[in-house]
Amino acid sequence: MAIQNSTNGQPKAKLDASKLVVKLAEQLKPLPVPETMTFGQTQTDHMLIVNYDPEHGWGTPEIKPYAPLVLDPMSSCFQYCPNVFEGMKAYLGPDGEPRLFRPQKNMERLARSAERVALPPFDGDALLVLIKRLVEIEKRWIPNKPGYSLYLRPTMIGTRPALGVAASDAACLYVVVTPTGPYFKSKARGISLLAVSESVRAWPGGTGGHKLGLNYAPGFAPQREAAKKGYEQILWLFGDRITEVGAMNVFAIVKRADGALDAFTPPLDGTILPGVTRSSVLSLLDAHTKGKSLLPGVPASQKIYTHEIPITMSEIKVWSDEGKLLEIFGVGTAVAVAPVGRIGYQGWDEEVVLPQHDGGLGPVGKGLFDHLMDIQSGKVDFEGWSVPVV
């Protein structure tokens, strides 16, 4: 990458983790009872923040007490939405120390998202060093309970203080964290989906393959309508093709005549977010079939073949009618693996109802969930995915 220069010809400062300034809160907040927490509604004691200006580049990173941001009313983030973010988690390992799950993947995706909306570039390795320091400071907030973690939200917004349709040459990069437990309070019967084709989540050539704030707001109204009809999430369609489940990637498990299983997920065609959990699930399914790392509760002899190909609602209906459709689940950082119980679709006489399993997840989904939890917490080593903070 070429070195950017300021207007006076001097190189602009890169994001430098060695310049970090830490100011700790004088009084720490009481920790909540884990079972009472709602996702994303608990603010911890501290946050990380660093600003970029077009003249000097990246400023001094700070970890300081959690506080509101101060932004110019004309900031680009309010007018033109150059807002990108990531979702990642920290887990307590067997030694009581925090760990991150494949964090470099998040740094790479954040950089791609920032580039897509022409925000200033940053050093992902430096940002990861800063994030690790923040997690180290906030580790008391990680609930020491299975299925609980510390959710991290790295965010970058354009702060150019002027109107005019142009890329933001100023930015604010910050990270907030929040303790979290299960995203869906009860998954005993799986989540209910309303398949929607009249509202499109992403369009070819658009921004569906990047984690941008502007991708999410258009889904709020359709989600509200789905809730009125008794459904918890939307199954987003593009024509007849399935794309995503709510804000999750989707997998369908289909039985072959010979007893093997096919695991289908839509391809990364630019409309699908390249989820870190999605990538991990594909790797774990392949590892099980090759005998390299077995899914708990799934026989070693069970072959599961992965396919990144388009899936249609028509196929879902046929597989269901023929008794071949065993499981559908969504995957993502917030949920890990979330079972689907039923799907409603305009024009169908009746819903597709998935086979019911104890706890909601079928054997493959449950095996993936348990294996992911063991890897994320450092109980099981797989490909170095679980990264110690210290």
Automatic annotation (TrEMBL):
Could you tell me which SUPFAM superfamilies the record lists for this protein?
D-aminoacid aminotransferase-like PLP-dependent enzymes
Q: Which GO terms fall under biological process for this protein?
A: L-leucine biosynthetic process; L-valine biosynthetic process
Where does the record place the modification N6-(pyridoxal phosphate)lysine? 211
UniProt keyword annotations, A-Z:
Amino-acid biosynthesis, Aminotransferase, Branched-chain amino acid biosynthesis, Pyridoxal phosphate, Transferase
What CDD domains does the record tag this protein with? BCAT_beta_family
> Which reactions does this protein catalyse?
L-leucine + 2-oxoglutarate = 4-methyl-2-oxopentanoate + L-glutamate; L-valine + 2-oxoglutarate = 3-methyl-2-oxobutanoate + L-glutamate; L-isoleucine + 2-oxoglutarate = (S)-3-methyl-2-oxopentanoate + L-glutamate
One Gene Ontology cellular component: mitochondrion
Q: Name one GO molecular function term.
A: branched-chain-amino-acid transaminase activity
- What's its EC? 2.6.1.42
Q: Does the keyword Amino-acid biosynthesis apply?
A: yes
Needed co-factor(s): pyridoxal 5'-phosphate
Tagged with keyword DNA-binding? no
Q: Enzyme group, top EC level? A: transferase
Q: Which family does it belong to?
A: Belongs to the class-IV pyridoxal-phosphate-dependent aminotransferase family.
- PANTHER family assigned: BRANCHED-CHAIN-AMINO-ACID AMINOTRANSFERASE (PTHR11825:SF44), SUBGROUP IIII AMINOTRANSFERASE (PTHR11825)
User: What protein am I looking at?
Assistant: Branched-chain-amino-acid aminotransferase
- Organism of origin is Ephemerocybe angulata
Taxonomic classification? Eukaryota, Fungi, Dikarya, Basidiomycota, Agaricomycotina
